[in-house]
């Protein structure tokens, strides 16, 4: 199962790379902004915490599994691993689909000087952050496929990076950029799950 996890992680990386190339072909811009983030800033910590968790879960855990690192007994069951495969496949494909749904507004990291359009159609009608939601589902699947302590730790690190990026970087940026339009949208649509994490018009949830 560790080899299958590595293959699925490789598919995630390939699709992410394809999304960058598609963006460049369509707009003349790759959409990548992570190399311009100020080192030590909140976004810098959020971005690289997320990526660290991705690498630990997607690469470190399967390699640990191939090196005879024992899985957690409570999750060491064929049914759990099969569920992991399903979640990983769905999450990887859904992440790419959500990235494509953003069209020209798709970015990796936030550039405060840019004013991209507010995307509210497609999967963004269900949740405000479908890319992160789908990625978390996919990497939860990878964790269940190779359920060792490395995978669990990596997933928790990844989750921490997502929460930091969304709550302290992206949501404040979108409020400043789109004002009432974003506030109205966020009051209707959940943060990562439908109906959960909606933002009140007077204060954040």
TrEMBL record:
Gene3D superfamilies xrefs: 1.20.120.1630
InterPro entries for the chain? Phopholipid_MeTrfase (IPR007318)
Primary place of residence? membrane
Cellular compartment(s): Endomembrane system
Q: How does the protein associate with the membrane?
A: Multi-pass membrane protein
**Keywords, comma-separated and alphabetical:** Membrane, Methyltransferase, Transferase, Transmembrane, Transmembrane helix
Report if keyword Acyltransferase is assigned.
no
| TM region positions | 44-68, 80-102, 131-157
Query: Would you name any one GO CC term?
Result: endomembrane system
Q: Which Gene Ontology molecular function entries are recorded, alphabetically?
A: methyltransferase activity
BP GO terms, sorted: methylation
Is Transferase among this UniProt entry's keywords? yes
One family from Pfam that matches here is PEMT
This chain's protein is named Protein-S-isoprenylcysteine O-methyltransferase Ste14
């Amino acid at each position: 199962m560790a080899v299958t996890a590595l293959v699925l992680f490789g598919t995630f990386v390939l699709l992410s790379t394809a999304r960058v190339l598609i963006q460049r072909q369509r707009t003349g811009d790759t959409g990548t902004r992570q190399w311009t983030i100020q080192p030590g800033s909140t976004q810098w910590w959020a971005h690289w915490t997320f990526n660290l968790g991705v690498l630990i879960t997607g690469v470190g855990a399967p390699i640990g599994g191939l090196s005879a690192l024992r899985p957690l007994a409570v999750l060491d069951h064929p049914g759990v691993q099969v569920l992991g495969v399903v979640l990983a496949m769905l999450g990887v494909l859904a992440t790419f689909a959500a990235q494509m749904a953003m069209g020209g507004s798709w970015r990796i990291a936030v550039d405060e000087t840019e004013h991209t359009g507010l995307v509210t159609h497609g999967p963004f009608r269900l949740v405000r952050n479908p890319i992160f939601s789908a990625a978390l589902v996919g990497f939860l699947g990878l964790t269940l496929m190779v359920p060792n302590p490395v995978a669990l730790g990596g997933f928790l690190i990844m989750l921490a990076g997502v929460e930091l990026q969304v709550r302290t970087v992206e949501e404040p940026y979108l409020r400043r950029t789109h004002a009432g339009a974003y506030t109205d949208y966020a009051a209707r649509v959940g943060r990562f799950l439908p109906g959960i994490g909606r933002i009140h018009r007077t204060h954040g949830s």
